[in-house]
Design brief:
four-stranded antiparallel beta sheet; about 220 residues; single chain; five-stranded parallel beta sheet; elongated; alpha/beta
């Protein structure tokens, strides 16, 4: 496991050696700025709140905003308000100094077990200039955001999930409307609206007698 220790205290080196003996690959940073290049590398960050350049709470929020690393705050601050602030900033655990190495290793094991059990967030689907974000529930064609309804989004995401496959009307009915009696004209209406909103009928191709598949279209050049 790749562990980043963000700690200005010289004891960080001793901690690092102990973790290495327990199977960790360790990097040590003494400031928030020094730690930043390793955020994407780390599986786990052991974070001291009192850093010489940036408050540790801000660092925790930064890690949590765009990285998947687990974070355990280690701090001398034992007040309840500090613990609450640390946990609200996105840390997975809060450990007050001084602590025993056995407790730290047990906390690391518990945190990583929880993290590994959490399902990964679905990633955006990108098909040429079309980008579909299932987390933000947003659709973009090039730089233009396309406003769609929930059903339109579900239909488009289903087609984009299998871009080279023709999806039958029956499958679309089952997965988008969760039934097998949705009228074909309802699907046709949603397809028609999506084509209009996406700016081209080429985005959704009708395969007669079978169903639909995702197509492709170029982003139209801006008017001069």
């Amino acid at each position: 496991m790749r562990t980043l220790i963000v700690e200005p205290d010289e004891n960080a080196k001793t901690l690092g050696r102990t973790l290495e003996r327990n199977g960790h690959e360790v990097r040590i940073a003494t400031t928030g700025s020094q730690a930043r290049p390793s955020f994407s590398w780390a599986d786990l960050v052991l974070l001291e709140l009192e850093l010489p350049d940036i408050d540790g709470v801000m660092i925790c929020r930064e890690i949590r905003s765009g990285r998947n690393a687990a974070v355990i705050i280690t701090s001398k601050r034992a007040a309840e308000v500090d613990k609450v602030l640390g946990l609200q900033s996105g840390s997975d655990d809060y450990l007050v100094k001084p602590y025993g190495m056995r407790e730290l290793l047990a906390r690391i094991e518990a945190v990583m077990r929880r993290v590994r059990q959490e399902p990964d967030q679905p990633r955006p689907l990108v098909r040429g200039p079309l980008r579909i974000d299932p987390v933000g529930h947003e659709v973009h064609v090039g730089s233009r955001q396309v406003h769609v309804t929930r059903k339109e989004f579900s239909l488009l995401y289903l087609l984009a999930s299998s871009p080279d496959q023709v999806l039958s009307r029956e499958r679309i009915m089952s997965e988008v409307w969760q039934d097998d009696w949705t009228a074909s004209r309802t699907i046709d209406t949603h397809v028609s609206m999506l084509r209009r909103k996406l700016g081209s009928g080429q985005w959704i191709v009708t395969v007669r007698g079978v169903g639909f598949r995702l197509g492709n279209a170029l982003v139209p050049a801006p008017p001069r």
